[in-house]
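Internal tracking record. Fields below are filled automatically when a chain is submitted to the structure queue. Please do not edit lines marked as system-generated. If the sequence contains nonstandard residues, flag them in the REMARKS field before resubmitting.
Queue: standard
Priority: normal
Entity type: single polypeptide chain
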Amino acid sequence: MSIPPVPTLNAQPLTPPFDGFIQRQIDAARRDLAQRLGIDVAAIEVASVEEVTWPDGALGCPQPGMVYIQVLIEGLHILLRVGDQLYPYHSGRNQPPFLCESQMGLRAQP
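SYSTEM-GENERATED OUTPUT FOLLOWS
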């Protein structure tokens, strides 16, 4: 299954080495996923990192029944991989990255 499009504006793929802020966001996402899965952080690969402009306060991960502020928000879309499973993390401004569970079920291409 391919990765569904994430609603962003001006997505810019980033490549290592990452600046300090971006690296801290990636590290936080990896630690969160390691804790959720009960695995070592070293087992988590960074599949991609993009600087994005989210179209609203949902940060590309709207939840049913929620209302979000309608402003553009700068953030990151971090895609982590464990085996053939992909885990999308979203962040905005100074907000820590969070797992966008509504986009779960993604599989990496072989």
